[in-house]
Amino acid sequence: MKKRRTALLSLTALLGAALVASPMPPAAAEEVEQLKNGTFDTTTEPWWASSNVTTSLSDGQLCANVPGGTANRWDAAVGQNDVTLVKGESYKFSFKANGSPAGHVVRAIVGLQVAPYDTYFEVSPQVSVSGDSYAYTFTSPVDATQAQVGFQLGGSDEAWRFCVDDASLLGGVPPEVYEPDTGPRVRVNQVAYLPSGPKNATLVTDATTKLPWQLKNASGTVVAHGSTTPRGTDASSAQNVHSIDFSAYKKPGKGLTLVADGETSRPFDIGAGAYERLRTDAAKYYYTQRSGIAIRDDLRPGYGRAAGHVDVAPNQGDGNVPCQPGVCDYTLDVTGGWYDAGDHGKYVVNGGISTWELLSTYERSLHARTGEPAKLGDGTLAIPESGNHVPDILDEARWELEFLLKMQVPNGQPLAGMAHHKVHDEAWTGLPLMPSDDPQKRELHPANTAATLNLAATAAQAARLYRPYDKAFAARSLAAARKAFTAALAHPDIYADPNDGTGGGAYPDSDVTDEFYWAAAELYLTTGEKGYADRVLASPVHTADIFGPTGYDWARTAAAARLDLATVPSKLPGRDKVRQSVVKGADRYLATLKAHPYGMPYAPADNLYDWGSNHQILHNAIVIATGYDITGGTKYRDGAVQSMDYLFGRNALNMSYVTGYGEVNSHNQHARWYAHQLDPSQPNPPRGTLAGGPNSSIQDPLAQSKLQGCVGQFCYIDDIQSWSTNEHTINWNSALTRMASFVADQS
Hints:
Elements: E1 32-33, E2 48-49, E3 54-58, E4 61-66, E5 77-85, E6 90-100, E7 107-112, E8 119-123, E9 133-139, E10 144-152, E11 160-171, E12 186-187, E13 192-193, E14 200-204, E15 212-216, E16 222-227, E17 229-234, E18 239-245, E19 253-260, E20 263-264, E21 268-270, H1 273-284, E22 321-322, E23 331-332, E24 346-347, H2 348-367, H3 392-406, E25 419-420, E26 422-425, E27 442-444, E28 447-448, H4 449-466, H5 471-490, H6 513-527, H7 530-538, H8 558-567, H9 575-595, H10 613-631, H11 634-647, H12 701-706, H13 730-745
Parallel strand pairs: 13-21
Antiparallel strand pairs: 1-11, 2-5, 3-4, 4-11, 5-10, 6-9, 6-11, 7-8, 7-10, 12-14, 14-18, 15-16, 15-19, 17-18, 19-20, 19-21, 22-23, 24-26, 25-28, 26-27
Helix pairs in contact: 1-13, 2-3, 2-4, 2-13, 3-4, 4-5, 4-6, 5-6, 6-7, 6-8, 8-9, 9-10, 9-11, 10-11, 10-13
């Protein structure tokens, strides 16, 4: 299971209208208006307004005087209840709106008017800036007689006036056909190929026999040519494709293009510079995700902001956070750490895998044949700690580690030594919302075994890596790791509630054998103690086949242990077999890559792409890269490097999934404070931010309205409202950080 990231309506106290259900119309009804009095000719009835909003008729419009000083979108609203929806039917939601002063964002929703206030469709136009007429088509995911159309108007310091007219929800309309602009049919890595690395492309074509191709430099001169290789129908995209291999051309250059079947690709480079930049850009992402510190604009121009959740109004803050009711009777200072994703939550389980991956990026540089520690050293990431003689990537990871340590249950309390699962808002907030403007109550969620083992694993790993720089912190980390592991052994089966997803992601995990294995492995690698080695060797995970098609992630952490046991020097009995198992996993992913017409190490069953598929592709590539670190085999190096092609444009949508990289790239990731799509005064996500990528389950209303019936690679849309396909997260960028560093080292 994955996180549920929908902002729910909190309007119970605002709705005074009686909830009288309308009869369900027959499913075959065509073009039936579901709203009453959307033209406001003589009255505003039956539209309601929250108690703090005054409405009136003005020139045939409903106009609402909205007070200033509200924190959330739903703190001020107008709407209509008792709307009927039919599951599977398409609706056209349209209205005219204007605002004074201009520029306020309105959250227009179609959702449930009673608990749990689910939202079925939502948009957030900036009125009188993005136009005055709005129309959208969506498909209802439910049957409902108590649905609601609402315009949420709060979240502004200043008072303003909102007017709406011609509001309509027309049922029975033809579904809107969404056709993404995929550009030229020649799909390339739009960023760069390494001069000495593999260079492959994919041609989408109806042709079934080989075709000629040409490689042209920036001046249009043909510098290489050859013939395509027909591959038939690619199941992950339902396209007929050919492969193009131009690896023999090794001369560096900028602005090259590939021509085949009358199509010219988007431009790309041959060189290593882009990967050196990405090595740092992907890691720089974490500074702007920090909680509890003001982000300096001189270090991240355009991204400076006030500190979030530091007990300064309107924040209720993280300095003295209570548990959820009935969970505990103490409070904790849990300031600091990274915001997990596009929301303001902080999660130990996801923080664990993310911190491990950053630490392992650095640890690989110490032990791998191509590792370059100086490339991750002091001064490389432009963070406040730069210049303190500690590698910047360790300084950045420590910001999260300090938070993870604070989440440990204190001595003298029930479950002492365990770790709380997460801390986040009591209820979901809307977009956009700066961290410093979040008014919600913060709550600690119950401690559980998985979170405790995440703490044990990352703190143990930290103990060995920080020892040369801060012996006291290393000792404190190791003590916390030992304590957490002991507590987890005493409480081995406390699991996160899968339904605890209000205000933040649930992150449930009911199998922690992998976390026990991971924590024991990190404790052994740091201490060399036989007791931890025995637990590693006795774990059923130790000899299990863990390198499956969808790779590892926050809920499947066995690979974190296996990769470190294979590459961090130790005297573990049978270590050679551990290394062989990683190489075997690399061989499996390499075979998947070679068989895939788009050349990637990811082929989930039935082409059902998982939530965050892009980071799973990267994780499978990391296993291949580790195969190279173990064996030195060129095929592993080339396979790992080639895996980046998909992320940078060699895919069915012909786009890069990394902000700022490639001619066409994802830049509207779901985010509360990189929300330029909703608020032009905010930036897009920073360069080097990875989008989650295709997700066949398309859980959010926007994706459901656009992508019904999508095949594999096409289950993605670059829109801020598509939290199931287009969110950014700390664990996805940690995968990008690690792979970018590996590829840069190969130059």
